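Could you please review the protein record set out just below?
***
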Amino acid sequence: MDEREAFGPLSGEEICAGLAAIAQAAARHSSPHRTIRASLAPDGIAVEGFRGRSRLDGFVIPLRDLARRPGYLLAHEVERFAGRV
């Protein structure tokens, strides 16, 4: 089984680029009053919004989406989420 059969249509390099895009979008939308955090979760990438120490909301980008969707689309999801919190 090659890499594409195991993970989907995107290569490992493309998946890493998607992870970087998610992290950059989270950092870009963080401020002294609001934090958008992307971290590893058992089933994907957890994206959470915090105001101070209070968690406002969050969602998980499933691992299968990392392997099947381009990074800019995943980063766009993070940006839409940041606009809501």
Notes: The mean pLDDT is 85. The helical segments are 3-7, 12-28, 63-68, 71-84. Residues 12-28 form the longest helix (17 residues).
